[in-house]
Amino acid sequence: MDTDTLRLFVAAAERLNITAAGRDLGLAPAMSSNRLAKLEKELGVELLHRTTRKVSLSQDGAAFLPYAREIIAQAEAGRAALGEDTLNPSGILRFAAPSSFAQLHIIPLLPEFQNRYPDITLDLRLSDKRFDIIDGSFDLALRNAPLKDSSLLGRKLSDDSRVLCASPAYLDRFGVPTTPEDLKGHRFLAWSDMAAREIVHQDGQRAILDPEKMTCRTVLDDGTSQRLATLAGMGISINSLWSVAHDLAAGTLMQTLPEWRLNDQSVLWLIYPKSNVLTPKVRCFMDFLVDRLS
Questions:
Q1: What domains are defined for the chain?
Q2: Single GO molecular-function term (predicted)?
Q3: Residues with Cβ < 8 Å from 199, sequence gap 6 or more?
């Protein structure tokens, strides 16, 4: 099975445009269509539905897509094992990450990465809602949660310490809590998960932060929005230090209960499917992020 044709199919499936996918690979429109038709004939299925107005992925095409990506990855790994493609990694790298972290810490680094590796195209999916890395056919993803899925492998990027904070204006108006019990009745900016969380004191004491005992008038599912709402004085919130470090240093936010932190042992992981070969493009992006952000 021709890997160049598989690359064309993957590109067409991602862009839903055969002409554009072919152009990216240096192919004329007619040649692109002929190659895909030959692949479909070889497999005995229609991979892409075509009309005069649009292209869409068929059910068979959706089922075949992750295998096509895996074949390409295996071919790249084989060339890497023979010493090829290691100096000039290339291809499309599909990467998923929380948007809040990416906006602050990854996007500013991308010009440097792309100058260093001009043959790698980054296909980024940024959202604070978690993507399924296997179903989404991602090469790599950033997760801020314990690595529990046995089908995934990971490399630690950093600890993800989380603290309580609020704006000076909010604390001036509603008072500064000095113990966990003082949080009762305070306005709390909650995530959609309203579960109680354990917090731990620097001397080892433990307590429970229960949103049900606080006043939750705003529920958010986006870290950047939560930070902005906290800056606006809407309440106390839980934030990762990487999100609010500059605000704390500038005094626009104040750490609440500064001797306490969330006890969830959260870590930022760069993860990838165990079944995937760690290709040169994935390895160099992972090394780049660890070098710059760990």
A1: 3-82 (1.10.10.10), 91-160+267-293 (3.40.190.10), 162-262 (3.40.190.290)
A2: DNA binding
A3: 164, 180, 206, 207, 208, 209, 257, 260, 261, 262, 263
